[in-house]
Specification:
Strand content: 15-25%
Number of strands: 7
Number of domains: 1
Structural class: alpha/beta
Helix content: 25-40%
Oligomer: single chain
CATH topology: Aminopeptidase
Amino acid sequence: MATSSARGKTDSMNEELDKAILSQIRKDELVAMCSDVVNIPSPTGEELEMGRYMRRTLEDAGLSVSWQEVEEGRANVVGLWEGAGNGKSLMFNGHMDTSNTGREEFLTGIGYKPKAVIKDGLVYGLGIYNMKGALVCYTQAMKSFAAMEWGRIISSITACCPTCASWVSPRICNWFSAITALYGSGLPFMATMCTPVSRAGNRS
């Protein structure tokens, strides 16, 4: 059982680590990328341009990127950042499509159109909360890890961007289609998917 002094030391270390990580996050980059991804329409079946954007973004971040065209005009994007350490592997996973097109007459308001609006410190737009905002956060996290030289500790980090969240067709995608091709029989030690658990509106 940990003593109070040991817990205090751990809490202090975690606080310092939190500060170090947050110091690498750039608000202007977050807002700019959020606006970019919202402004790229990507309803289910029309994710090609969004895929191209994520491919360029992950390549610019220094990742080795795989382009998996699962149907004509549709592709999974998988970025791999290999560390030099023997630590655990981590995967970030998030789909690129939106459930709606933004053309539906019953959807009104700035949060349901593929056009980013920044208002009162929030970014509004179609897909920002499900789940393009997560793709932005994953990218910033990868940049933070690289800047802090976490590659000396970890085994690998993967950014997995499947075309959609649908389980309908195994030819199209599911949550693990991309990593199956990337890792073969092996899987990352841990995966995170920042998908919303409630519909609070298209804002982030």
